[in-house]
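This follows on from our talk about sequence and fold. Please put the record directly below this note.
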Amino acid sequence: MNKNLKKNLMVRIRKAIAGLVVAVVAATFLQVLAFRFFNPPFTVNMVYEKAIAARKKMPFKPRSYEWKDLGQISPYLRQAVLASEDQRFMCHHGFDFREIKNALGDIITCKGFRGASTITMQTARSLFLPSSRTLVRKLAEAWYTVMIELLWNKKRILEMYLNTVDWGRANVGAQAAARAYFSCDTKELTAEQAALLAAILPSPHKWSAVTPGPHVRQRQRRILKQMKNMPVLKE
């Protein structure tokens, strides 16, 4: 291959890569912008799980999912989730660097591993991305987090999180969880019930809100104490 052909090839490759990057940025930007105004009929992970089950020829239980506006969700649950998952939600811009620093410190000092994901990061993960654990997904999660904080306000982020988070037992979102665990609408949840739902969020497929063990009860009590310090975001 002569120098001119090689040079032209490299130019084409660089243009192709640049075009792909621009297309991805534009597509994700428009995707996040659209969900600022429209409620999702489903999440990417719901589709992903169904596709995986079909490929592996495994039985698949359809996910229970019903959208509720923020004003239709118990204020206790709003406070409980903030107390449990992201107490500095109103202060950060998607990434809680203080919590990340603390989590890294625990790993270095062998105190164990704990997550440092914010509600914004978890929203990016639950709405736009599959549940696979890969480096590409983590990078995509960070990118979507930036876009979400740029285009949505905090009320919309919390509303989206409460409607798309996995609450275990094939229940997606607050309404499905309230129905499944307490046979009521999410607006009717008491402070104790809301704290219990928030308590199982870190591991909803392992911990139970129906038959909570000592650890979940301990988390519930801690969340109840911290809820009074959390804001009630109103629609």
User: Anything to note?
Assistant: The mean pLDDT is 88.
